[in-house]
Amino acid sequence: MRRLGIAELGSAIGERVEVRGWVNAVRDQKRMQFVILRDETGMAQGVLEKGDEPSALNDAVSALTPESTVRVVGEVVEDERVKLGGLEVRLAELEVYSAADPELPVTPESSMDKRIDWRQVDLRRPDRRLIFEVQTTVEAAMREHWREQGFIEIHTPKLMGSASESGAELFRVDYFDRTAYLAQSPQFYKQMAMAGGFDKVFEIGPVFRANPSFTSRHDTEFTSVDVEISWIDSHEDVMAFEERWLRHTFQSVAQRHGPAIEETFGVELVVPELPFPRVTLADARELLRGHGHEGPQDGDDLDPASERALSAIVREHHRHEFVFVTDYPTTVRPFYHMRHPDDPSLTRSFDLLWRGIEITTGAQREHRCAQLRTQALSKGVEIESIDYYLDFFRYGAPPHGGFGFGLTRLLMQMTGQDTVREVTFLYRGPNRLTP
Amino acid sequence: MRRLGIAELGSAIGERVEVRGWVNAVRDQKRMQFVILRDETGMAQGVLEKGDEPSALNDAVSALTPESTVRVVGEVVEDERVKLGGLEVRLAELEVYSAADPELPVTPESSMDKRIDWRQVDLRRPDRRLIFEVQTTVEAAMREHWREQGFIEIHTPKLMGSASESGAELFRVDYFDRTAYLAQSPQFYKQMAMAGGFDKVFEIGPVFRANPSFTSRHDTEFTSVDVEISWIDSHEDVMAFEERWLRHTFQSVAQRHGPAIEETFGVELVVPELPFPRVTLADARELLRGHGHEGPQDGDDLDPASERALSAIVREHHRHEFVFVTDYPTTVRPFYHMRHPDDPSLTRSFDLLWRGIEITTGAQREHRCAQLRTQALSKGVEIESIDYYLDFFRYGAPPHGGFGFGLTRLLMQMTGQDTVREVTFLYRGPNRLTP
Fold first, then answer.
1. Are B235 and B363 in contact (CB under 8 A)?
2. Is A354 helix (H, G, I), strand (E, B) or coil?
3. How far apart, in whole angstroms, are the C-alpha atoms of residue A46 and residue A48?
4. Is ipTM strictly over 0.85?
């Protein structure tokens, strides 16, 4: 007897098969019993006649609670009247693996908070599951491109002896008789890989931010995608890599999930054309003003409203959903971003916006030890705390650059969700450490 | 003018090309200067004549320090006498990206500790780099197999509100006004994914153990590979998955790096035959005694010496490097391992040994909430601390099982290294939080 996924039942008309799955619903009528079964591939109707004397099997069906897990055996019968695939399974055997408590604690309409409390039930909905299928495809496509280009995968330590960038928003860990810190980004260590001759690296892993805010974009732990590339001429090489890499990723997602995303979330996935539009921050400011947005002041970063406005302008004028904003002033960039030789108030840096939200921050890094030290001093960084980092560049380092990419922000936009909590397997925030 | 990797120079005889890389060594003779250049693809010799009046370029070469990074331009000339590829580059231009301090702090012969202090220099050696190329291939092959089988990738939280398994070896984090704990494994959360209807999942990510030991196998942070599968009949299904998955992985590594691994580390990579041998722990104990090893007592786990001895016996008798040891007693297994229905003192569990070292622990899990609670009580687990975990199984859960796999242990054996520190990008131990 074959064990089949529900989506395969159409190939087994007239056959006795086994199905394992969830009880989606039970209708216990006077003469007939119906069990809607659900597995990872779809839903199907199980059916059983009931005589004047209910059989043991009838009683077992009557006792079923929704969301219990079961193994059923039965003959697959074609029936055009049945909405679920035009077939039904005539139940012959039923085994209950795990009986669900009768009252479910949560529904799709429950608050986000309550749904996270019962994430194990919430995730069973096919639309929630689709989000993580898309995530799986996104990461696989990214890795495919990295692999073709000869990148090395690294796993950098999340436990650090001192702060990775600034001392703010840092989690402290009791580490034997001292204090460790949780990495806010793999930034310094991916640069160590460059100094270590690894040439091109990537990492997908958790980062930690002791950020007390509760916005739809923030969490205290999230999955960061990091890339670093050696022997570049400028940040332009990094952007040229990123746009090809994203195009490949979008192609892969569109091919595998495009119709499902559109049907489930009402969001069209547009594979972006190359090259992506680029605009300097100074020009972006002018562009925003020309369109009646106040925009950021000189020396300031784009705020979320400006990001949305800029994306809308670019979409209208360039028919493109992406835009690289480049050449940020040193005031809003960390000390290790390389400065323009002809204008040291500007950095060789960029952000990437997609549909009004920043999904990437990147730059060429300063690889010359003395210059790096000078820049750190000019930004008021305590040299002692970054001595080990400066050491990375004392014995030769290639010119290099890279970017950090927010996986959850991408997924949020890709599946039309309104908060990163929906696209995070299990959200962590200032008040949220459970389940 | 083409920019080429050193391995490509043979295709450019007579051509003026650009090369970017490291100064491996300089020989500054009376009439000739030689610069050995190194990049990610290999090494080549640069050459420059010196007249009575040294040129600016001669002076620049004289000033080069080993491990500096440079860009050179020159004509590629065939010369059979040159050991490095039978060619040399006649230097015409030289740009120094980053000049290395003259005295290197570390050599390949330095102590492991010192080499970790200067990991950015240590990693430049091609044999160190090969370890991480192998790691990249290992993970890519694992993912390839998961993807073919329809697995979903998850990223479980590393910040937890309470202990993941036992309270021992747990790192504490200051989390706003309370305490969080670093995940020792994604165990509970990958089971949540099963309860959440994800069917088959994997995760590759960091785990944290506040283990004060300094052995060659231990660290406080390492990369764990985790798998969990639903709708299984027993732990046998999990083992059947793992052996196919490992065979695929070994095939991929052998194909891509087999000769390099043998040449560099003197280790032969043997692609394992299916199925892997299986032996119950009770039988393993008899086998060990029959071969003159004392072995573990009843109810005890295998110690490292017994693991080595058992692997040697299996290798001799089955000509196989792997062995599944199954059916561990409940005394040495956690409460959530499913027990044998016909002998509740034994669990449906297994370890996998490879070349004398345990690389996997797996089991079918108990998915029935009431039974799980009973088992927790019988093992003296404080129910309050696992209430949230028991909740995972209250509203239906499929029968499931899986395993945790030590990536660093696999790599250590695969590349013939004597400690996990060699195969970890940046080791973390009780006294080691830097760089």
1. yes
2. strand
3. 7
4. yes
